[in-house]
Every structure is written in structure tokens, then in C-alpha cells.
Amino acid sequence: MPTTPTIDILNPIIEYLCGDGRYNNQNASLLTRCLALLVFVDSYSVGINRIREGLVAAKLSPYELRDLIHALGASCCEAALSLLEEIVDSLADDDGLKQIAAVWIDILLSFIEPASEDRFKFDFESYYGDVLVSHIAELTRVNNKTMRRTLAFYDAEISPTKRTLLSKLVSRLGTSEAVVAGLKLIDDGASQPVPFDLSQAIERSVLNSVHTTKP
Known about the structure:
Number of strands: 0
Structural class: mainly alpha
Helix content: 55-70%
Largest sheet: none
């Protein structure tokens, strides 16, 4: 977004919300969203500096920073990542860490969530897909809520990229529940009806069943 017009529009709103309008939960949410927009102005450094000023003036609570943390995590500029590190350091308590963890989970799951756009141009058939899925699998294994949310993705219509990643995730998780969910990825109309990683996971699951049923 163009820097000067965006800041000219947002400045009066931010100043009001940091001052007289601060003591209202709904206004706090609006302030966070205004600051999050500044992450995406053309001049990164100007936008990030204005965000810093707003954070100092508003003294937002950890749970109020969710939208801003998400925006900073989605940015590719160094200034945004530097500010994100500062926020992480300032939230070194239970509430703050839980908030950060929730945002990172949302960011990672956005790569495989059917409703999310395929915004990233990595070759997920390669090493990049394996690295991404390994991190998602780690988070999924230790949180039942995240596991249920992830397995529900297999019920929706998905893009070829997400089909590849979800297939890799089945293989990485290796559970019978994941394999059953992964069967929904089989598509007779696709160039590869059964994704490679899914076929490997099915084969391992069958072999394990044979070994465990032997007398």
C-alpha cells in the first residue's frame, strides 16, 4: 500500500485509539488492526516505526496483539521480523507465550488449510514441503485440538499443492487415524490418483497390521 496516504488516513484513528478511545476493548482490537495494516505499506521502515510508536503509547495486552503478530509473521522484511522479536522478548510470560504459540500454529496450518490461498511459491514436492510438514506434525502430535482441526482438512476440496502437503503429513504422522483421513486424497482424475507419500503410509500401515496380528 502507498505509505503516505495510508499513514495520513490511519494516524488520526491511531492517535484517538491510543488516547481517549483506549479504554474500550473493541477499540483495542481496532487499534491492533490499524497497526497491522502498517506492516504492508511500501516503505517498510516508516510503517514499522509508526507501529513501534503506537505500541509504546497504547501498552496493549498480549491477547490484544494477535492480529499484529500474525501480520508481522507474514511479512518478508527484516524490520518486521526485528519488531516481532522485540514483541516476543517483551511477552516472556505464560499469557504472552501462549498467544505467540497460537499465532505460529495458525500461520503453519494456513499452508495446508483448504480455505487459505496458495500464496507461497515454494516447490512443496521437494525438501521444502518435507521441512514444513515435519513442523506441522510436531505441533499436531502434542495438541489434540490441533490434530482434530488438521484431520478435518481432509474432508474439504483442496488444491493440488495442499493435496501434496496433506499427503506428506499423513506419512509423517503415521497413525491409523491419519491414514484413514488420507484416503480421501485419492482422486482417480488426478495425474497421480494416489499421492506417493500416502501410498507409502498405507503400505507401512498394512505391514504393521500384519506384524501385530501374527500369533
